3-keto-5-aminohexanoate cleavage protein
Amino acid sequence: MRKADKVIITCAVTGSIHTPSMSDALPITPDQIAEQSIAAAEAGAAILHLHARQDDGRPTADPEVFMQFLPRIKQSTNAVVNITTGGAMGMSIDDRLAAPRRAQPELCSLNMGSMNFGVFAAAEKITDWKHAWEKDYLAQSYDLIAPNTFKQIEMMARDLGDRFGTKFEFECYDVGHLYTLRYFADLGVVKPPFFIQCIFGVLGGQGADPDNLVHMKNTADKLFGDEYYMSVLATGRFQTRMVTMSALYGGNVRVGLEDSLFLQRGKMAPDNASQVKKIRTILEELSFEIATPDEARTMLGLKGGDQVAF
């Protein structure tokens, strides 16, 4: 693993799993997404990972919705914009690629395998729903696979990488996903440096256990040597402890309301910036320095904010 002198903070601003009934702080409209993204960047996030939503909070892949907040974020910050290719449950590959093809960003997420992505338990915990769509949306994950086949992964990597020079945040929910990434690296479909996001705590993927983080790092070290940067995200109450552990092992961190709605035990986060400020404080207290957006660009070999289409 490449151990950088400075830690990259990614903020995942809204995602596609949490629904409006879960938190009033979750940004829904383009204005809310733009405002919270800008505030997160000002708090220290070098990378902003972005999804889009309809006015009722339902996830959308519509490029026109993305284009209502992407230019505003670019005009107001120097942050690296990272657009999802995972999209949301039930979206087709063409849906998931619609916004990245339009925006041609510096960075996109790319899931490294199909998986059960279980969020159905959340539907059992809420009784007062703001919108009719929410409960069924979450419950469908009991019998739904999040597809990312080898063919789909190669198509997305070649489409965005070869055509637009976009690099990837490789989302790895289990150790097998690292081997899939190695396969595509050996084919030359993707090239180093690799930005590997190790994900913990999603039902269907690996649990948020420190031993699992160590195993992921050790496996990635064997497969990629010094050709990769590690980052970690963890869901819910595991967020802070697992991402801090990533930094202690020489990696980077991801926080944000996509991954956790809480700031600390029993206290909801009022916005994304509060989570960024919290992890920044922890890291600086541990004598880490925080990477700027341009430093993150240099580390990850990104094409630059002047090469995007928004």
